[in-house]
Design goal:
mainly alpha; MetI-like fold
Length: 230
Amino acid sequence: MNIDLIETLLISLRVALAGMAGAGLIAVPVAFILARFDFPGKWLLSAITLLPLVMPPVVTGYVLLVLFGPHGPLGSLLSSMGIELAFRWTGAALAAGLVALPLIIRPLRVALEAVDPDLHEALKVAGHGRISRFVKLDLPLVWPGLVAGLMLGFAKALGEFGATITFVANIPGETRTLALAVYTALQSVEGEQIVWILCTISILISVLAVGLSEWLVARFDKRRKEHGHA
């Protein structure tokens, strides 16, 4: 494996991991709000969280470019603080995390809604507030759902293409991820070998991530059934 391939792989892993981590930080409170609260406009918040999953990736990338680009309102603000996103790997991580966000929120929300309300009521009577109940009850029960969502989000972030190339372009050594490297190699008549290598690497990493996600979900369901029969 040559230096360019290793560099592309490292950039891809860095972008996917950073995107997954950032999306996870947003997904936990959003999933908690959607699972535990009823309020006007809840349907709208739920719909917004699913938008990156159903919108064309190019549209997502263009919106990010308008908002976070050098002349965008948020981009200018962040730039004044020394934070650059457009045409940087950090911007690729933002795009990857955004498209991965729905895949993290959904399983976590479902897992939170599956927690027995009677257990919450018992802790509430004992004097535990919402945050305390979340830490003491929800997290120990839903962590497989959280990790499963994170793994799915990682796999999605790893394969992100449209939003990334629209927002941060295809810059070697900076924003060129595995998906963008495959696209670049396809433009060359001599790129077939490198395409196969990149596709194999992408498939292996994605299978591992999705496989781990499926295993965790199966384990979570098994534990829930065992507790239900206990």
